[in-house]
């Protein structure tokens, strides 16, 4: 095990990670003994606590503890994979048998194989994402009850609740391959959420709020989460529809990251080599307005997806995806890179902490700048075609007139084509939503088709 990793751990953790490292090396040695030209193994252990309350009563308390081993072997260009949740020697031996048998019966794939040995990570850093907190079920229930109670007590129009939840978890993962690479990651995660219902009968409106991160003590207070959920539900009472037309649209930050997600999906290697992307042949072309950049920051401290290496052991690094509006690269694993005749971008398993450049204006300032249009705070449905870029989703939010929010609106459909929508970004706000690995503020779009009454 790397000394750089070992020095970050307590003696008991060193012993534990050392045992898993020894197990991984034994599995790789067994694969070589059976004739595999290459092999890779992943080991993971996760534990967690989840509680749900509703109307002050406990609905569920769930403890989880999972572990598993996944294995991929290569016989030349033939590949086979198998996995097991049982780490006793007999089960692991059967898993090796299965992976080898599958590989021998698969068709050769010229793109199969490990990532290149020279790309393996050699430096391992602590990203400050390991903060175990011995929260027990009673304490978690108390937090959930506090969140729900704070929301229900805010206003008599809060008539019901969909409940509040608290989740706490920690995980350890190890990856090793026959290049001699071995690395591990560990992280903790916590979240508190609350969903409340305002109004009665057909006039009921539901909304929620949550916070999440690697440190429980840095989350928004349970009381504030409950009150925010209540305020959001109250603000949606007595919604109206809108006449169909083209309007400026402002995506609230928590909705805006979905737009960036669609762009990233279209830029992924798997979509591109299947020719299922509206960004085919777009390298070096504008995909966003000038001045907007998307940069991957895998070494961000306390990042949601910080990592020294990707799922193939390839060293990660700060890497622009879009610079000044121009698409600089695709999002590639070693396999998708070979399929496209390119090089891996250390993205096996996805992106690591994407930062979207933003302006200096708050959401309120963007509302004033928009003047007249729709603020979107909820999206529904999956009406996005990554092949063509066609976009159509149900939505709800608020009508804005004279730079001020006038009333809630719902039963809307917003539509367009992602190529056009993304190029019509007017400004991105400074109200960055930090609860996701995609850091982005509210996004103001010049105009979209809004179908209402």
**Bulk shape:** globular
Give the overall average pLDDT. Answer: 95
Uncertain stretches of 5 or more adjacent residues: 1-9
The main β sheet shows up as:
6 strands, antiparallel
Question: How many β-strand stretches?
Answer: 17
Radius of gyration, in angstroms, nearest whole number: 24 Å
Query: Strand order within the widest sheet?
Result: 3-2-1-4-5-6
In terms of structural class, how would the helical and strand content be classed? alpha+beta
CATH architecture of the largest domain: 2-Layer Sandwich
The tally of helices reads 10
Question: Could you please say which CATH topology of the largest domain applies here?
Answer: PmbA/TldD fold
Strand content: 25-35%
What top-tier CATH class of the largest domain fits best?
A: Alpha Beta
Q: Kindly report the name of the CATH homologous superfamily of the largest domain.
A: PmbA/TldD superfamily
**What is the total number of structural domains?**
2
Report how far the terminal alpha carbons are from each other.
Answer: 63 Å
Helical content (DSSP H or I, runs of 4+): 25-40%
InterPro entries: Metalloprtase-TldD/E_C, Metalloprtase-TldD/E_cen_dom, Metalloprtase-TldD/E_N, PmbA, TldD/PmbA_N, TldD/PmbA_sf
Keywords: Hydrolase, Metalloprotease, Protease
GO molecular function, one term: metallopeptidase activity
GO cellular component, one term: cytosol
């Amino acid at each position: 095990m790397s000394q750089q990793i070992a020095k970050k751990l307590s003696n008991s953790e060193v012993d534990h990670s050392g045992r898993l490292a020894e197990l991984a090396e034994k599995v790789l040695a067994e694969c070589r003994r059976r004739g595999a030209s290459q092999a890779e193994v992943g080991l993971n252990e996760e534990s967690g606590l989840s509680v749900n309350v509703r109307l002050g009563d406990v609905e569920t308390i769930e403890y989880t503890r999972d572990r598993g081993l996944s294995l991929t072997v290569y016989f030349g260009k033939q590949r086979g994979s198998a996995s097991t949740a049982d780490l006793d020697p007999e089960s692991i031996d059967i898993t090796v048998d299965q992976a080898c048998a599958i590989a021998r019966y698969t068709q050769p794939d010229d793109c199969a194989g490990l990532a290149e040995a020279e790309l393996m990570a050699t430096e391992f850093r602590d990203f400050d994402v390991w903060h175990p907190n011995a929260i027990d079920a009673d304490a978690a229930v108390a937090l959930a009850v506090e969140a729900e109670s704070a929301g229900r007590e805010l206003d008599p129009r809060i008539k019901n609740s969909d409940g509040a939840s608290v989740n706490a978890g920690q995980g350890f993962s190890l990856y090793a391959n026959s290049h001699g690479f071995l690395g591990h990651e560990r992280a903790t995660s916590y979240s508190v959420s609350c969903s409340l219902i305002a109004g009665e009968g057909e006039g009921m409106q539901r909304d929620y709020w949550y916070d999440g991160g690697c440190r429980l003590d840095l989350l928004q207070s349970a009381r504030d989460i409950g009150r925010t959920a209540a305020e959001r539900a109250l603000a949606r009472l007595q919604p109206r529809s809108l006449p169909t037309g083209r309007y400026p649209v402002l995506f609230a930050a928590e909705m805006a990251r979905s737009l960036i997600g669609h762009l990233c999906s279209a830029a992924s290697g798997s979509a591109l080599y299947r020719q299922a992307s509206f960004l085919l042949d777009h390298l070096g072309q504008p995909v966003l307005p000038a001045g907007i950049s998307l940069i991957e920051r895998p070494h961000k401290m306390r990042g949601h997806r910080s990592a020294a290496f990707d799922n193939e052991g390839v060293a990660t690094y700060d890497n622009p995806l879009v610079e000044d509006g121009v698409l600089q690269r695709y999002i590639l694993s070693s396999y998708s890179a070979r399929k496209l005749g390119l090089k891996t971008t250390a993205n096996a398993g996805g992106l690591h902490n994407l930062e979207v450049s933003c302006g200096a204006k708050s959401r309120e300032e963007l509302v004033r700048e928009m003047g007249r249009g729709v603020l979107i705070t909820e999206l529904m449905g999956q009406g996005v075609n990554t092949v063509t870029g066609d976009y159509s989703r149900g939505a709800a939010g608020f009508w804005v007139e004279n730079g001020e929010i006038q009333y809630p609106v719902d039963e809307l459909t917003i539509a367009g084509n992602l190529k056009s929508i993304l190029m019509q970004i007017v400004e991105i706000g400074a109200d960055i939503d930090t609860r996701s690995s995609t850091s982005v503020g509210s996004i103001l779009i010049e105009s979209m088709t809004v179908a209402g009454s």
